[in-house]
Amino acid sequence: MKHSITVLLALLLSTTTYAQFQVSASGGYAIGSAGMKLGETQTANGIENSYGSYGEGLNAQLRGTYFFNDSFGLDLSLGYLHGDDQTVSDVNLTGYEVDAVARARAFGAAASIVYKFNTNVYARLGALVKLGGKTEAVVYQKATFSQAEADAIGVPYGSYSETNYVEDYHGQFPLGFVAALGYEYPLNENFSVFAEAEYYGISLKRKDSEITAFNTDVVLPDGTVAVRGLYTLDNLPEGTNRHTTFVDELPSDNTDSSKELAVKVPYSSFGINFGVIYKFKKAAPSHDR
């Protein structure tokens, strides 16, 4: 037992002797990988699927890395993703138009093992989690009234409704993985710059959503707004739910439109990051006996 404790203390002392701590900040851009169907584009000629990943877009990261020796280290990072617009619905039909996009606004964290192949080349591999954020859907819809609808509202035929709304989707706690291969170039004893290729593999299961903004105007054929705020967030159209919950099962006789079957949406991506590293003074090896 004493021998085991002595060996453990010796290992801890040796790693502490060579220990080095560094912090880094980086920014980059990622493209979607293994894109899944996110929406559809529809015209009079047909319907076409739209594929992508909500992980596509700009990102920024702050990392702290502790090296136990000259090769191995532990990396903890915090990141923010400002996702690109992804097409959910693009409809262009006579008398009916929809332009709906969704984009990620997410905060995440990762814990990784770092291995240095040499003083310049390194690799990271670890686990990735989402800490917070949302997938924000922004929708525009234009619908021309039928003659009966126009008469009921009291506007001439050819008038239409313009609806704009925002719906925020939230997901369950996800777990994914991150892998990166990078090149570091020292500038001096403390500062380095680096570039790296990074892969995120993660999907998000939807938990709930909430409409956070809603407005419908009635517009005359000449473009004049006849009625502002026909429908608002406090006066939603019949059948429109402000809150929706996503579940794994629904009964065959379900009549609750505020519940829908859950789906998984992709956040996987492949990106390039550029940044700067600051290294704190490295402990010198001890030769005391």
UniProtKB/TrEMBL annotation:
InterPro entries membership: Beta-barrel_OMP (IPR027385), OMP/PagP_B-barrel (IPR011250)
Domain Outer membrane protein beta-barrel: 8-215
Pfam families documented for this protein: OMP_b-brl (PF13505)
Source organism, top-level taxon: Bacteria
Classification via SUPFAM superfamilies: OMPA-like
Keyword line: Signal
Residues making up the signal peptide according to the UniProt record: 1-19
Annotated protein name in UniProt: Outer membrane protein beta-barrel domain-containing protein
Organism of this sequence: Winogradskyella sediminis
